[in-house]
Amino acid sequence: MSTGWGIAATGRIARTVGTVLAEHPEMTVAAVGSRDAGRAAALAADLGAARSYGSYEELVQDDAVDAVYVATPHAQHADVVVAALAAGKAVLCEKPLTHSLAETERLVRAAGQHGAFLMEGMWTRFNPLVRRLAALVRHGGLGEVRSLQASIGFPAPYDPAGRLWAPELGGGALLDLGVYTVDLARSLLGDPAGLTARGSLAGTGVDAESSLLLTFDSGAHAVLSHSLLTRMPTTAVLLGSRGWAELSPSFYAPTRLVVQVGDAEPEAHEIADRRAGFVGELEEVARCLREGRTQSEVVPLSETVATMRVLDQARRQLAG
Question: Catalytic positions, please?
Fold first, then answer.
């Protein structure tokens, strides 16, 4: 049975995921919604959607929509997600789910109250190479894991009213970029026992750059770096007592995993399409809908809450 999707927003990521949906043989883009009716109509036409709406309220009421993909700026996620859940729709919401721990917990409660499916769109967890690495760690393939090093950053033009810099829009490097590194660290190493955050703030008060040191009860640690001021490598390296593994060229959507164990030569694993994570998360929503689930086992809501708890703590330390 085909899953009918409604896309809430019309920006770059909405178009990217919408294209993946439109190309999928078991899914359709039923409708597109935006506060700009013209932009909604244009994207709907490009994706082959039958309808478009000039409001999110109309979108979530469409009977042909089984699931809503929310791609608005993260400070605007909550209202759209709650409206979709109240309408009985499944929701896949872009990361981070919200801009704060309190808001994230509110959406989790709303999903429970309405008995509706909700998942954060953490496409990294569905990437085949990330899943291969997680399985390797789980089965002790690298021995005792000792450390993770991951970084992500790019110079973003400073615009106090822009999405990346305005506090009211959920700006800052941690919310936009740190959600990837923290989720990767937690998925491979578990919940941290300690956190130290250092960095600098922009003129608007949001974090412009940061480095986090996470420590774990196992004795392992993670060094995670993020920046809106400088370009950083987007690789992640995991070090264990028996060997190491590297995700590249972008650890959050890798197409290459290199694993070196013992004295053996490094072994490379590759995939062709960095969008594989998008396909995986969309298929996960469809599977959960068919099985009557309200949460994903790959990205359960408890994991989303735990990652946001770390981000909240780090942002508080940086704010001083």
Answer: 95
Closest CA to 201 of 193, 192, 210: 210
CATH of 3-121, one of 3.40.470.10, 3.40.190.10, 3.40.50.720, 3.20.20.140: 3.40.50.720
Element (H or E) spanning 277, and its range?
Answer: helix 276-290
Containing H/E element for 36? none
Q: How confident is the model at residue 320 (pLDDT cuts 50, 70, 90)?
A: confident
Tell which residue, 162, 10, 32, 166, has the closest CA to residue 99.
Answer: 166
Count CB atoms within 10 A of the CB of residue 25. 6
Query: Looking at the predicted structure, is the pLDDT value of residue 1 above 90?
Result: no
Between CA 258 and CA 248 the distance in angstroms is: 8
pLDDT (tens digit per residue) in 49-67: 999 999 999 999 999 999 9
What pLDDT is attached to residue 74? 87
Kindly give the residue spans of alpha helices, DSSP state H, lying in 10-90. Answer: 12-23, 37-47, 56-60, 77-86
Do strands 145-153 and 236-240 pair parallel, antiparallel, or not at all (unpaired)? antiparallel
What is the dotted CATH code of the domain comprising 125-276+307-319?
Answer: 3.30.360.10
- Whether cis (ω within 30° of 0) applies to the bond prior to 160 is no
Quote the pLDDT of residue 96.
Answer: 96
**Interval 136-151 mean pLDDT:** 97
Residue 241 — φ and ψ, nearest 5°?
A: -70, -20
| 267-295: burial string, b at 16+ Cβ within 10 Å, e else | eeeebeebbbbbbbbbebbbebbeeeebb
The confidence score (pLDDT) of residue 75 equals 87
Domain borders along the chain are: 3-121, 125-276+307-319
Q: Which helix (H) or strand (E) holds 106?
A: helix 101-114
Residue 176's SS3 state is: helix
Average pLDDT, the chain: 97
**DSSP string computed for 214-269:** EE-TTS-EEEEEEESSS-B-B-EEEEESSEEEEEESBTTS-SEEEEEETTSPPEEE
